[in-house]
Design brief:
37% of the residues lie in helices and 18% in strands. With 640 residues, it is α/β, with parallel strands linked by helices. Strands 5-4-6-7-9-8 form a six-stranded parallel beta sheet, with helices on both faces. Helix 24 links the parallel strand 22 and strand 23. Helix 1 crosses helix 2, helix 3 packs across helix 19 and helix 11 packs antiparallel against helix 15. It is globular, with a radius of gyration of 25 Å.
Length: 640
Amino acid sequence: MKTVRLTMAQALVRFLENQYISYDGIEHPFVEGVIMLPGHGNVVGLGQALAQEAHRMQVWQGKNEQGMAHTAVAFAKQCKRKKIIAVTSSVGPGAANMVTAAATATANNIPVLILPGDVYACRQPDPVLQQVEQTHDLSLSTNDAFRPVCRYWDRVVRPEQLMSAMLSAMRVLTDPANTGAVCVAMPQDVEGEAYDYPESFFAKRVHRLARRMPETEVIAEAAEILKNAKKPMLICGGGVRYSEAHEEFRRFAEATGIPFAETQAGKSAVVWDHPLNLGGVGVTGCSAANEIARDADVVIGVGTRYTDFTTASKWLFREDARFININVSDFQAMKLDALAVVADAKKALPALLDAVGDYKAPYTSEVSDAAARWRKELDRLDAIAFGEGYVPEINDANAQSAFQFAGDLQANLTQTAVLGCINHCIEPDDVVIGAAGSLPGDMQRMWRPRGVDTYNMEYGYSCMGYEVSGALGVKYAIGDRDVYAMTGDGSFIMLHAELLTAVQEHKKINVCLFNNASYGCINNLQVGHGNDTLCTELRWRGEDGKFSGKFMPVDFAKIAEAYGCRSYTIHTLAELKDAIADAKKIKDVPVLFDIRVLPKSMTDGYGAWWRVGDTAVSENPRNLEAYRDHLDHEKDTRKY
């Protein structure tokens, strides 16, 4: 057996260089590159290895460990999980910063390889800088915090352990049913230790994404259930996109006449104006999808995890509704007591279509009528304006905040009108990305994708701060096309360091910053359940000792300019249209639109319920009213 003497870090990089993925006759490298923020724990061992061994792979410089890992998550998501970026950090705080991003990846079933530096395996210099000593277990380090948020976790304490660790890591990263974050911790002394590795470990290794076929008996059972359905409904989940079953899903819907709703991850698998597309479903869904869902007797979920937002905390669907779930994960396929079709959507949908024969859903005009009502509502949302004494109908009980904001920050735009304007102004193949606040709800309801796979929403973890970093990851994935990050001011404040990376890399990302001087989504939740505003608005502290003063006039455009971005401050729709048109001419400089939008001007409702922790005992009668409403809804929820 031929061997080559390399350090553990050198062997790791050489191994990653030679990992490929194959699917549907297509083969390409799996690991696009590595994003790193050097520090003690990765700068010497792994840093040297990257300089020596990284030939095909790109190396990027990150600015914040969480941000650069979010960049990797968005990249893999946009690439339908068929390419990844590895992320490495130093010991201690650098590693801990990535825990949030690892959780984001795992919650969304997105592969990302986390390579944190670790404390010394030999323990001789302990405690080293940034080491947390646990007196009950000296084997613990910061990197053990990755265990609950990763699909696979390992620590390489001897250089020869790298081989089994990385083979297991690749197994999980390329497993559609069980992918997510993978953490392989690297003690800084072991990174530099040498071993005689077999040359075969570095041979080209092709990981084949085998498409799991459905069982014939299960397909037959599913077909019998569906043939007896009077009001069936499809749910298009993220698995449709990751499987690249776009055409199979559309063909199944058209052949059977079954309308479909979209989850956040499934949105843009089919363009928005398809006659059977009901739009978003659930808590952040629209009236059309929720009306049909409420009456559905058979629900075919394709590649969905059935989060509480999709099911409206299991309240949306009838107690006697039957579920057929097509999913590569048996865990996900069994949810809601469904008939589990554990298979790849691209294979299962044609098989089910053949089995149902000439079945046609017996709808008359219910679907088209619901869609028409929703499109009329979309027109209204696009046109909502503020001024001349008119207050938006949405959340108008809190209109005082809108009036005061309009005076403090000279703004009169509504969030719905701004979102509609951006949607109409950008190109059909541009990609939008979001994650947190009220924007994901508005976007699942209002965003009208005109191109396939142009919607990249992280809503499994709804991680504030993902938006800017994620936009950079999408840009790495899509090349010359434009990406637009939809972010609130709260998320931007929390994490936007990778905006500087975009400047450094000459990557044009468009940041649409909805500046309403508040954490508006949480403020709505807070006030809507009977509480007074507390720490959810960006106001000066007032004479009463509370945050009751004027709204804080943060100039986000100047922040972006200081980084080297092009920026626009927007007060009117005309200014927004002009700014977008002007920004389209820019090729290699990031752009930020500081858009002044009014609080309480987002979408709301549309026939769903979200279960939150309402208060059973309170001196505030509004809390008790909210609790009674909670109990009323809870009676009508499915139990499992």
